[in-house]
Write a structure and sequence with these properties.
The chain is α+β, with helices and mostly antiparallel strands and about 400 residues long. The chain has ten helices and 18 strands. The structure holds zinc ion (ZN).
Length: about 400
């Protein structure tokens, strides 16, 4: 914490201390109190961490306290200064809202929007995330959750491993049927890391379009993307497909074991030889927690069971997915509602480009060719490139 009350009830802000050591030394002799629970606080002003207040007994406070790292404290100060420089009606650090028992890192009132910035550097349970979000909304405050960028796991220039906790920070872009984005901030770089165009390849591996935006050059308005970026190329996505094909599958999840068995029985092919049509990036693919090639293969197997020239409805394909217990939905309760029909439809639309099916009416498709189930890796890798680069 950076804010406390002194014995006279005045708010003391540690970031506004002018005379460094001498002021801190003087403050050490006095008692400070938590503005939330009024318990006495210790002033921690050693040589390692930046000066801050801490509860003598952590459990005694009314609101949850996470231990604050320098990374978090610095970020809080930077975000506060950043908002303060943008002509807000009000900007306050660690303001306590007793009616909802919340104390955001930074509170800002733009005149049109009341915003609670939560710079989250440690994992909290999803239930707590939802509770705090709804409490802010109840008080007509818009929570702005910003992920500590040091927690972002970058697997390549644009591929990230996103844990279920980090997924809670995903936000919808301007287009509800477009891919979501994630806002993170790095207090060491003093820059936002905006991770846009998130498309999951598997449960936690997402390709994206990341960009670093120094805090000095960006306003509050700009951290919310106004238009979805379009990917320049699908190199990273193709790399993930290649890895899937060439890396042996050793530790298989339950759904992959089941899929493997189905494939052997029906098509006599291994998981590494799934058709290229099972790896199509779909903007609303995040609705599935299950890997892209699992749900898409299920639809392909459904189409495969039909004879050429037969017509099927979007809903038929949707039902295949809905009734399949191996296909797990991702938690999207923090996003606007998008139905499972959206990714299924987007996928079928993409399949019309491959020659496998053609559009019959708005919601129905006609099978136009048989799918090529081959075990020839070279042929598959070549077709992966063709299909994906057409996107
Ligand atoms: Zn307290």
């Amino acid at each position: 914490m950076l804010i406390a009350r002194d014995a006279d009830g005045r708010l003391i802000n540690l970031t506004s201390i002018r005379n460094g050591h001498s002021d801190l030394h003087r403050m050490r002799g006095k008692t400070h109190y938590c503005p939330v629970c009024e318990h006495p606080l210790d002033l921690k002003a050693g040589s390692i961490k930046i000066p801050h207040f801490a509860h003598q007994k952590l459990k005694s406070c009314l609101i949850d306290h996470e231990p604050e790292s320098d990374y978090h404290l610095n970020g809080k100060i930077q975000l506060y200064e950043w908002l303060k420089s943008q002509n807000m009606v009000q900007t306050e650090m660690e303001r306590y809202f007793p009616e909802i028992m919340q104390r955001p890192d930074v509170y800002a009132d733009t005149g049109q929007r009341k915003i609670a910035v939560e710079f989250q550097c440690s994992a909290i349970p999803a239930a707590q995330f939802y509770k705090r979000t709804s409490q802010y909304k109840q008080a007509n405050i818009e929570p702005l959750w910003i992920l500590g960028a040091k927690n972002a796991v970058r697997l390549s220039s644009s591929t990230f491993r996103i844990s279920p906790f980090q997924w809670l920070f995903a936000k919808q872009g301007p287009d509800i049927l477009g891919p979501p984005y994630l806002l993170s901030y790095c207090s060491s770089l003093q820059a936002f890391l905006l991770i846009e165009h998130l498309i999951p390849f598997s449960k936690q591996v997402f390709t994206s379009i990341p960009s670093v935006r120094p805090i000095r050059h960006i306003s509050l308005h700009d951290v919310t993307p106004q238009a979805a970026p379009s990917p320049k190329n699908w190199t990273q996505w193709l790399n993930l497909i290649k890895m899937h094909r060439l890396k042996p599958h050793i530790h298989l999840s339950e759904e992959l074991k089941t899929l493997q068995q189905t494939l052997y029985e029906k098509k006599q092919i291994p998981l590494s030889c799934l058709p290229s049509e099972a790896f199509i990036p779909v903007a609303t693919g995040y609705l599935f927690h299950t890997a892209v090639y699992v749900w898409q293969t299920k639809i392909l197997l459904f189409i495969d069971s039909l004879s050429v020239r037969s017509v099927f409805h979007l809903q038929d394909a949707g039902n295949e997915i809905k009734r399949d217990r191996q296909i797990v939905r991702r938690d999207i309760s923090h996003l606007k509602h998008v139905s499972i029909g959206a990714p299924v439809r987007a996928y079928l639309e993409a399949l019309t480009q491959t020659g496998l099916i053609a559009k019959e009416t708005t919601y129905s498709y006609r099978k136009t060719a048989e799918l090529n189930w081959t075990q020839n890796q070279e042929e598959l890798l070549k077709r992966d490139n063709e299909l994906i680069n057409k996107r």
